[in-house]
Specification:
Blueprint (H helix, E strand, L loop, with lengths): L7 H23 L26 H18 L4 E6 L5 H10 L2 H5 L7 H10 L27 H9 L5 E8 L6 H6 L16 E8 L15 H10 L3 E5 L4 H11 L5 E6 L9 E2 L2 E2 L18 H12 L7 E2 L3 E2 L2
Parallel strand pairs: 1-2, 2-3, 3-5, 4-5
Antiparallel strand pairs: 6-7, 8-9
This protein binds thiamine diphosphate.
Thiamine diphosphate binds next to loops.
Length: 328
């Protein structure tokens, strides 16, 4: 088996990258001004209409950062294509495309500067701006965000005839209840990624955060043994990662790269790194984190301060300095 040695500084850099993406995700959801928190957050800094999805976003940022590190830095630029099933987690994808400079290639206003951060945040989920979900306007997108179900099938399709490519596809455990996704599991029986096949590799990652919009998911209520047996029955070789720890992620990606039909199950808490409890209700680790976890941030002092604490927790001022840029 291939072992992946990951240095302390790589771990630190991955953590910084995820913190930056998380901060920019939350800022897109809530802020219309005061993007660097230069003064205490005020009601006037909050967008008048809060529209977007938080619960899935930290997991997207973790998966994206680790895939990027493994394939680009460790694997020397292997051709990686990333497909996001839960396209409602678009602020996370948008944050990553922004940090990678991919957004600025098609939209120069999204530069890696305060003006670019303002542009990103103000225009998220705003009329004429970035849609709330992944859309055809998103650089590189081949699966839109609005309708769950097609990501896994699209991933197999994208790898056909591209032996150089690995297609990593992040699926939601709610998405995993759609007929389309479940039927697509049969593709392991129709698809080969052997050297002779001329196809690339597909790496499904199931983001099992336990909840969909308004309740628990079926997959995450199965025992781990049942989960693995289900996937083995379809021809996959499951690997479980139950943390956002970069070392464990890099090891899991190393293992996956050695298997013919790997399938990563990523167990997380829905809304991880966000508020634990809002107005007396459990939000983190619950479906209440699915969309906007602090819906009254623009009018309720307690929620506004919770938002401020949440944003401050990422330590963005250590990651970005105006004039110097990002240090990730
Ligand atoms: C086919 C389809 N049915 C329903 C919806 C509405 N919907 C949007 S997000 C969501 C929950 C998705 O849950 P999951 O896939 O687990 O994603 P996550 O928890 O990571 O947000 C649902 C049901 C949809 N977008 N597409």
């Amino acid at each position: 088996m291939q072992t992946v040695g990951i240095l302390g500084e790589e771990v630190e850099s991955l953590r910084r990258r995820v913190r930056a993406a998380d901060y920019l995700t939350v800022a897109q959801l809530f802020l219309q001004s005061n993007f660097l928190l230069e003064k205490p957050l005020a009601f006037s800094d909050i967008k008048p209409r809060l529209l977007g999805h938080w619960g899935t976003c930290h997991g997207i940022n973790v998966a994206y950062a680790n895939l990027r590190h493994f394939f680009r830095d460790f694997r020397g630029g292997t051709d990686l294509q990333f497909i996001l099933g839960p396209g409602h987690g678009f602020p996370a994808l948008n944050a990553n495309l922004f940090l990678d400079g991919e957004l600025a290639k098609v939209d120069p206003k999204a530069s890696l500067s305060l003006a670019g951060i303002e542009y990103l945040c103000k225009n998220f989920s705003a009329p004429g701006g970035f849609p709330s979900h992944a859309s055809p306007l998103t650089p590189g997108v081949i699966v839109e965000g609005g309708e769950l179900g097609y990501a896994l099938g699209a991933a197999y399709g994208a790898s056909l005839g591209h032996p150089e490519k690995t297609v990593a596809v992040l699926l939601g455990d709610g998405e995993f209840e759609t007929g389309t996704t479940l039927a697509s599991l049969n593709l392991t029986k129709l698809f080969s990624s052997s050297a002779e096949s001329g196809n690339g590799r597909v790496l499904p990652i199931l983001h099992a955060n336990g909840y969909k919009i308004s309740g628990p998911t079926v997959f995450s209520r199965k025992s781990e043994r049942e989960q693995k047996e289900m996937l083995r029955g379809f021809g996959f070789e499951p690997i479980v990662v139950d943390t956002d720890n970069p070392s464990k992620w890099q090891i899991a990606l190393g293992k996956a790269s050695e298997l013919p039909a790997p399938f990563i199950i990523y167990k997380s808490e829905k809304g991880e790194t966000g508020p634990e409890e809002v107005a007396g209700q459990k939000v983190r680790g619950n479906f209440l984190s699915h969309q906007i976890p602090l819906p009254l941030a623009g009018s309720d002092e307690t929620q506004l301060r919770q938002l401020e604490d949440w944003l401050v927790s990422y330590g963005f001022s250590e990651l970005y300095t105006e004039g110097k840029g990002f240090s990730l």
